[in-house]
Amino acid sequence: MPTIVHGFDWPDRLVVGTVGQPGSRAFYLQARTGPRVVSVGLEKEQSAALAEKIEEILDALMADEGNPFNVPATTPLELVDNDPLDQPVEEEFRTAAIGLGWDPSTLQVVIEAYPFIQPDDAALDSGDDNGGASGIEPWDVESDDARVEPAEMLVVRIPVGTARAFAERTLEVVGAGRPICPLCGTPMDPDGHVCPEPGDR
């Protein structure tokens, strides 16, 4: 069966947000165009890695002589988005792998999210290793998994300003969890904290 692609070429909104309290937050990547909203679950570490890699791409593009792609160094004021996720949050799938790249033909950053794949629900393709819908290879999945046809995937294309805003907001969201204990360096729960023994850290 062909892969169902949840595509957003110029989304009205793309954010990473959370549901729940610090210490038990669930992270979601959410795209919206008009009334259409797609949310996929992902891990905190995936969120941070995605934002960091987007910033690497943008910084590399900005370093080109004359900044030909007009990449902003920080989030443009009109793109600041501190609002929570659009409700209700309905998880389309849980993200197993993320593909990321730069499309010079449209001057957009391309993000692809792939779900976990059950071997019984998918078959290996014919051996084409060109990655996902945009030819972008997932960077956190084994090569054999990348050759499995997913039932569905999320593909989002965003311009450089939106990409900078997305990355900076995502890093702020990731850093807004439980405070870190200054003594042991581990997260502190709101209802109390006991530093673990050195061997348990």
> Could you state the order of secondary-structure elements as H and E?
EEEEHEEHEH
Main beta sheet, described? 7 strands, mixed
Range of helix content: 10-25%
State the helix count: 3
Which structural class matches the secondary elements? alpha/beta
- Rounded average pLDDT: 84
Q: What spatial form do the alpha-carbon principal axes imply? A: globular
Q: Kindly provide the radius of gyration, computed on alpha-carbon positions and rounded to a whole number of angstroms.
A: 18 Å
Through-space gap between termini: 46 Å
Main sheet: strand order: 1-7-6-5-4-3-2
Outline of the structure:
The protein is an alpha/beta fold and 201 residues long.
What do you see in this structure?
The protein contains three helices and seven strands; from the N terminus they run ββββαββαβα. Helix 1 packs antiparallel against helix 3 (160-174). By secondary structure, the chain is an alpha/beta fold. Strand 5 (91-103) and strand 6 form a beta hairpin.
Features:
201 residues, alpha/beta, 7-stranded mixed sheet, 19% helix
Blueprint of the fold:
Layout: E1 4-8, E2 13-19, E3 26-33, E4 36-42, H1 44-62, E5 91-103, E6 108-115, H2 143-146, E7 152-159, H3 160-174
Parallel strand pairs: 1-7, 4-5
Antiparallel strand pairs: 2-3, 3-4, 5-6, 6-7
Helix pairs in contact: 1-3
